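Checklist before submission:
- one chain only
- standard amino acids only
- sequence pasted in full

Submission:
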Amino acid sequence: MELNQWSVNEPKKHVISTKGYWIEYSNGDRHIDIQCGNAAFVLGYGDDDIMDAMREGEVNFLRGNTGESAYRNDELIKLICDRGNWSGVAYAVSGSDAVEAAIAMNDAYWSYQGVNKKKIITFVPGYHGTTMLCKHFRGEYPYLGRASIIQGPIWKRAEHQAITEEHSLNMVRKVLESDNQIGCILMESIPWVGELTPYSVNWWKTIRALCDEYKILMIVDDVAVCWGKNGSLFGWQPYDVQPDITAIGKALTAGYSPLGAAACNKKVYDVISKRSWDHSHTWSPNMAGVYAALATTKKVDTLLHRSTYIEQELVKIAQEFNLNSRGSNLFRCYDLNKALSLDDLARAGLTAGIQSHKSVKVVSPINADEEYFRELRVRLQKLF
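Returned file contents:
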């Protein structure tokens, strides 16, 4: 028997068809996927270009721990490096594994210099993946002893953002002043699993300045935000702040194949590349994922300009329904001030992977059209 993945109260549904942002079920329901398959399907479902690229790739198997490579594999590595000003890339099998690879880069950087900096500043609410270490970053498995967990800025209205951010930044400063074993700060590009509280430009620049002042590394978990969802390929680029290491995944392949990666700058690369360093596994790289990522990047590049239009439409919805909201580009959270479940969303014709208590989170596909926003309005209205 299959274990329930989400809620024991969630009715089992059989999907019979997916296309674009639509999901059709065996009972005749037709829903809009309002979260792009947990922020992965940035181009929607059934994209012929991506699926053709995966089928037609000339290399369909490549062992990841033998040093073997392929031309298109090297092409993707170069693309990631060139577009993000990176010097090195390590593949991963998922977003969670990409975060682990990023931490492995951090650990190698310090250990190869004979420095004991194993501790990591992280923020809650936050989500970095399903592995033991990633769960540790949000408070589980405390015996691992690596995470110094700080309450991140939580705010409902924009006028409260600066105050809550400064409070969290002050806690970061105190930890850095009191613990010389901190080796890095790990933060998400946009914390969206809670009730979506994007960081300000001041937050980004202050975190970067603190990392430089205390000579530690800045790691950005960009898995949920990369490849178009914040108006750029990398989610941190709009803030004009360059991390030392980043983790990417999800929309890297538009959700069509598992593939993640960690990338590091020249400072980190120059240290860890001088000795044997490895975060490899059987399916690294997954060549189907490599072809999907190359095709996705080509397509997303032509659509990046649409992120402004999508953000405007999502803001209009908040204004029309008189809802308090927060967001950035393709992300938007609407406060409804009443408890909602995934089943409530389903009855309104909306499918989502995760749900907050009194708000609705939307991650629009980057190719969302007028029909999408028209139908989104109709279905959100049913929740009021």
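Reviewer check: The chain has a mean pLDDT of 93.
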